[in-house]
Amino acid sequence: MPIEALVTLKSESLSPVGRERIRLLEAVAREGSISAGAKAVGLTYKAAWDALDAMANLFGQPLLETRAGGRAGGGASLTPTGQRVIVAFNRLEAEMARVVRAISPDLAGTGISPLNLMSGFLMKTSARNALRGTIIDIVADALAAEVAVEVADATVIHALVTSESVRTLGLCVGRDAVVLVKAPFVVVAPGDVPPRTSFRNCLHGIVQRVEAGAVGAEVVLDIGGGKTLAATITAHSAQALNLAPGKPAFALIEAAHVILAID
Fold first, then answer.
1. Rounded distance, CA 185 to CA 191, Å?
2. Sign, Cα dihedral of 147, 151, 157, 161
3. According to the CATH classification, is domain 129-261 in 2.40.50.100?
4. Helix H or strand E encompassing 68
5. Which of 10, 88, 100, 251 has the highest count of CB atoms within 10 angstroms of its CB?
6. Region Required for dimer formation and molybdate binding: what ranges (predicted)?
């Protein structure tokens, strides 16, 4: 039986990117729409959007250009970054397969599968929102620190952490970091005018989609730069706030609810 290398790119703080997500990206590009691409790889429309959002957030740039309209939910095509991601991943898989074939004789009879050596790089996270950015400011005292992370042009998320965490993680201005926020911690306020609020983070965006069930709803906001934020609210709230694709809204997040991670 031929040996196949399965590559999964992970980090302690990032959602994993493996063959399934790359194949989805390829399918969307091939079929010309997210709905058709999702169907081609056996995913629901929502699962496909979630995977594509995660990839865009974690690679730090949009991988797809989308256009609204049409019975199939509009069209989609790869950005130059999306094209490079696919090429790089396929090349990495091919190189890993070559390495696996080379070391297989040395592992014969050991009970160790060479494929077990090709697992991902670190761990997964349960946070719905994981956005890569760059630290642009740190204000600290003896106990606490506020860290500002720019996740897109003119889009900054503030995190409140301990000063000990700043030292332990080696946080400094200019260093890349990943912002983690659980979806239930994101509050959505509709409109174009920033609400008067005590929330440290008030991020303007456009409602990209709303998935509502009998009780709960997930609202995804496009916050620019190919980045999105997902919020979990009640279905009643989504209806009362008249949240719908294309409408402006703000994502409100307490700084203490933001977790920072580094590679």
1. 19
2. negative
3. yes
4. none
5. 251
6. 125-133
* Radius of gyration over every alpha carbon of the chain, rounded to an integer in angstroms: 20
Q: Where are the domains of the chain?
A: 1-125, 129-261
Q: Distance between CA 136 and CA 91 in Å, rounded? A: 34
pLDDT digits (tens, 9 = 90+) for 86-132: 888 877 777 776 766 676 676 566 554 444 444 333 335 567 898 98
Tokens 């609400």 belong to residue: 195
DSSP 1: -
Residue 148: per-residue pLDDT: 96
pLDDT in tens, 11-66: 555 566 778 888 888 888 888 888 888 988 898 988 888 888 888 877 778 888 88
Helices (H), the chain: 19-31, 34-40, 45-59, 80-107, 163-169, 235-240
Which of these CATH numbers, 3.30.200.20, 1.10.10.10, 1.10.3720.10, 1.20.58.1000, describes 1-125? 1.10.10.10
| Side chain identity at residue 72, one-letter code | A
Tell me how far apart the alpha carbons of residues 165 and 199 are, in angstroms, rounded to a whole number.
22
- Which amino acid appears at position 80 of this protein? P
As given in the structure block, the two tokens for residue 108 are 């014969």
d(CA 129, CA 227): 10
Whole-angstrom CA distances from 159 to 110, 121, 165 are: 47, 26, 11
SS3 100: helix
Quickly list H helices, 60-133: 80-107
Hey, how many other C-beta atoms are within 10 angstroms of the C-beta on 121?
13
